[in-house]
Amino acid sequence: MSPSLASSRPLMEERFRKFAHATAEGAGTSTAFIVAAAVIAGWAVSGPLFHFSDTWQLVINTGTTIVTFLMVFLIQNTQNRDAKAIHLKLDELIRCNANARNGLLALEDMSDEDLKGLQTEFEQLRERIHHVRKSRSNLRAADKPSEQ
User: Fold this and answer.
1) Which of 130, 110, 86 is closest to 94 using CA atoms?
2) pLDDT surpasses 70 at 3
3) What confidence score (pLDDT) does residue 6 get?
4) Which helix (H) or strand (E) covers residue 52, if one does?
5) Is 0.70 topped by the overall pTM?
6) Taking the C-alpha atoms of 123, 127, 133 and 138 in order, what is their torsion angle to the nearest 10 degrees?
7) Are 75 and 26 in contact (CB under 8 A)?
8) Which of 14, 53, 56, 93 is the most buried (most CB within 10 A)?
9) What's the DSSP call for residue 110?
């Protein structure tokens, strides 16, 4: 890779990140939905004018296909960044908690089998906690004097 191409890559990635973030934010607004609905309504209303021709149908099919194709990459980019940020935040919380298991810091790198094992472990822990709380609740109820 040439030095000029290597130095322009971070700039290109940063521009893409900003563009993808802004586009994903904008696409998730009510205004974007209204604009999309208006485009579809305009297309539908124009059907009789174009005699519902193949070209009329091709216009909306092509347009929606292109928009969908591009939005997949933009949304995936923002979701990847969000997931990384959440992982880093959770990793920091786990790291600074003295009672936490630091082995959980890299869960995203574990195999599906290892994740299933951890899930089973946490389900068993939840069940034990539920039983302990239920027992305590029953003991408290038994300690209360009955009102007659």
Assistant:
1) 86
2) no
3) 58
4) none
5) no
6) 160
7) no
8) 56
9) S
